[in-house]
Amino acid sequence: MRTDLSSQLDWIPHHDSCHAEPSAETRNRAQVFASVTTALQRQHRLGRQSEFIRHRNANPLGSDINGKIPGRSQCLQPGTPNSHSSSGLQLTSSQAREGPPPLGPLPVQSKREASQWRFEPRLIREKGVQQEMGASRNRRTRKRRGLRAAVSLSLLFLLAATGFGAWLIVVPFGPSTETFVELVPGSTSTRIAQQLESAGIVRSQYAFDFLRWVRRGKLKAGEYRFDHPAALIEVYDRIARGDVFTVAVTVPEGANVFDVASRLEQAGIGTRQQFLDAQPGLTDLVADLDPAAKSLEGYLFPDTYRFQRKATPLQVATAMVKRFRVVAAELGLRENVHDVVTLASLVERETAIATERPLVASVFENRLSRHMPLMTDPSVIYGLEVRNLWRGEIYASDLRRDTPYNTYLHPGLPPGPVANPGMLSLRAAMSPAHTTYLYFVAAGANPQGKSLFASTIEEHNQNVSGYRHAVKKAGGR
After folding, report:
1. Residue 325 CB contacts under 8 Å (≥ 6 apart), including other chains
2. pLDDT tens across 366-396, in order?
3. Taking the C-alpha atoms of 203, 208, 210 and 214 in order, what is their torsion angle to the nearest 10 degrees?
4. Is the full-model pTM beyond 0.85?
5. How far is the C-alpha of 477 from the C-alpha of 475, rounded, in Å?
6. Quick one: angle between helices 232-241 and 205-215, nearest 10?
7. How is residue 284 annotated by DSSP?
8. Which of 83, 214, 307, 399 is least buried, going by the fewest C-beta atoms within 10 A?
9. Does 6 fall in a domain?
């Protein structure tokens, strides 16, 4: 709705002089004019707009509170039309001289003439308001659509990244044939990831490195064996827990250092000669137990071990000696270790029957106490092996060969252990049975499957005769 102020406001008279003071009536009317204008503007301040319809080049300045009318750009010049602008009111000089029009609606003949006398503040029609509100809604809608599109793209990217990461980590990958990868000590995680990718164990070194960063785990050096496709997380877990590839090596009770060396070579862990050559330099491992030891003979405890294929003689010997220390601690073996282990090694080689071991140990103890030579074949054989003279079978000439381990020629215990005894033989050597036996025929050579013990030489000769008869009956020589 248009508001027509021509019926509410009187005409503001024009003064010819630029410096003439307005009358009180003029100031009052100016104040009313300013108040109405301010009220209209305040009414539509929020969400609506008002505008002034200016006529031609009218100056948008109104009167102030005192009724003064700023906005007169120039004074009247004689003979020159003059315009006085007051918030959209425009008069010509000829109209100004004619004086104010009467109160009430202006007598106009046309809309164009009325526009010269009337000030018309009016509101934007409802259609314009709706258009503006519609434009605002469109802007907000476009913004929301853009935001939704950005969120959707982000979610799609996140889902794609998650799927790709799951594919890298979960889907199995790797060789179908046996493949070995050795991770040397001191390798960085980046270097390890590169090795695994180069060997075809993992799809991406970056995925492996990222998984290690997430898990915050430590990777173990060693040789790893891969023989089937596996998920990345499985490969990582194996390396993190140190599941290195190892081979089993079994050291039986009674095996000596030469037997151990041969078994290591058969398992692919170095060569036999490498292990034997390293023996003199490994005695520091038992220096506190046996300061006089010339090798680790007797201290390579019988057991089944697992070693990496590139294990060194020191690593192998350390594991076996460690096992010996554990057993010795269980048995309470702390004193006279050298003699106990040497005696136990003789017992171990003479019989494999658990119940006979304390009896065999008693025979050796009784002979030692009487300063009788032990006359044990395993010791003679070991002396021959040390000199590389062993022919696989003992001969009479071997019993006469002078070696430090020939107990037929030298009384007392041999210089050191001749084999690696187990727990039962160590216990028997520590606590021999109380007997009067001085002789025995070992069960290992007796077809009857048991050892024959005697306290006198006559009894022993009878046992030897019975042994030879049993051998002949069995078809031996």
Report:
1. 289
2. 999 999 999 999 999 999 999 999 998 999 9
3. 140
4. no
5. 7
6. 60
7. G
8. 214
9. no
